[in-house]
Amino acid sequence: MNGLRTARLGLAVALAFGGMAHAETAMQDGSKQADAKQDDPNQWLEDIHGDKQMAWVKEHNARTEAELGGKPGFAKLQSDIRAILDSDAKIPGVYKQGEWYYNFWQDKQHVRGIWRRTTLTEYRKAQPKWETIIDLDALNKAEGSNWVWHGASCLRPAYTKCLVSLSPGGSDADTTREFDMATRQFVKDGFVKPLAKGEIDWIDADHVFVQTDFGAGSMTTSGYPRVAKLWTRGTPMSDAKVVYEGKPVDMSISAGHDDTPGYERDFVNRVIDFYNNETFLRKTDGTLAKIDVPDSMQRYVVRDWLVLEPRTDWTLEGKTYKAGSMLVANFNDWMAGKRALTELFVPTATTSLAGATWTKNHVVLNVLDDVKNHLQVLTPGNGEWRKSEFVGAPAIGTIGVSAVDAVDSDAVWMTASGYLTPTTLSIAEVGKKPEALKAMPAFFDASKDVVEQHFVISKDGTRVPYFIVHRKDIKLDGNNPTLLYGYGGFEVSMMPGYSAIIGKAWLEPGGVYVVANIRGGGEYGPRWHEAALKQNRHKAYEDFAAVAQDLINRKITSPKRLGTMGGSNGGLLMGNMLTQYPQLFGAIVIQVPLLDMKRYSHLLAGASWMAEYGDPDTADWDYIKTFSPYQLFDPAKQYPPTFIWTTTRDDRVHPGHARKMMAKMEAAGKDVRYFENIEGGHGAGSTSEQTAKTWALNYGFLWDALGKK
Question: What is the pTM of this model?
Fold first, then answer.
């Protein structure tokens, strides 16, 4: 599923859904905590790893597994999903470092996975020869650990010195160790970031930027580093020199190095909240020069260019630039005080910018028009930018583009996918016909299905799109088991894509699948997102309910046959469907959710999401309480069958949200069951076995509750 929006900043700070706080306990004043406990008898479940709490978890897991795991067909469903996850026929996505193309791979033989590499010549083959760099299963066996891969970054230009990040059980907190590509060994006395939230970034062979938990006061209230330091090889991390120190209430602080040859620069990024930040150029003498743009502006630097994307309409020197535009300026000129801007993209009523991929000589714009992709190529030269179409781009389907090597070439990876169309991967030189390299096999029979896009008018008159996948011969009798999925937050767009698991577990047996592109997402740019922020959050829920009602009105389904599913921020959406629109649904799946919006800002990384939801400790509670499912739950009301699940290792969204909602519903005698994977982080599992089990429980529950036609 989907995690929450990652800010598109030059120093990409991976904050997906705000991340988790370093501590696993609530951060609040003791008296407030005591008062809250008196009001909330289930608050004891917030102690994540307590013996009593874990006994509660295991008891409920056993009940749910006995109920759902014992149903006819469950074992086959789980086996089918596991086979998909372990399939050798999946596309091995690669990224280029030097002359090598790297991939992280998991299958039946490599449960935790292997980090490996090959050449482009080999990668073009149906069965490439791979060279294993790190075998995570072997490492775990040798160290008695349960490491989950978090990635690796190697130092240009030789790419022999690498920083490898590993997480225990899938949590966002990880450790980073220096690895020598030549010896295939972790470097003794090399750079090591201890287990904590944060990151480490190469400057050169003997220096790194590091931001992590340096001790008391070094983390923000959101649980991210608030201090960035420069660390020299051969010295203890405690001697690293402070580069920048933010405020405790900031979201995070980071420093990073741009290693583009000829443009080597250091930047510091202060993330104030999810939608406001400051970026500084760090000069050679260590002083900082702020990039002078509004804090809400998304910005990054590519070679000569400062790229700006305003989130709100922005007036500069008498000209107004629309929210969602893409603007460029010469970076050095901007820092010198000049304010010449060029508009590369201007949104319309139906279009938004989904992304921009920079190559050596071009930038490829990925534009959404009513949630359909269109690629454009822009090329700078002679004081202007020339626009052209991307040669060979598919006419239909969801298209993704990324640079193969943004420094040295104009090659891009291009993926194309659809609900019924397996993903294909091509490589293309900008301006030339793409070369198809890989294609995912068809994991389910889609020959009987069709995809449609519809629009519905929401409560306030807004036109809301949604996609529906159904049998070609569907009977509009209201008797079709239907699954409605949504997210609606953090400017995340829900795009059509091939999901073998959904296809095998839901579409192939005859289910109807629907995805709602509700407000709060990014389908129509910042305006679509901001339309459902804070006090307007209800509009996302009204949009989703309007789609559900439209499915019923069209007689595609009926309330007893309509199920819904969502996770993370989408879990909050599900909680509101449960408590505010229970009459529309026959089953609800609530995944790794936020539910207690009174205490969310005190649990793990909750403070980092206040820019999205508001601050419940202020007058904002007057509107937050209108979409807080834990408080909205009414024991006297009738609710549809519900399945709530989370993971113990989720250090983004505190598992207490799910636990407490389960306890409250269970005490009221509602039709509810619960599952908590002990590993998995903010997802369904750390291994294919865990993931297959979780998804089999999801779809097994839905078929049981909604029934097959």
Answer: 0.91
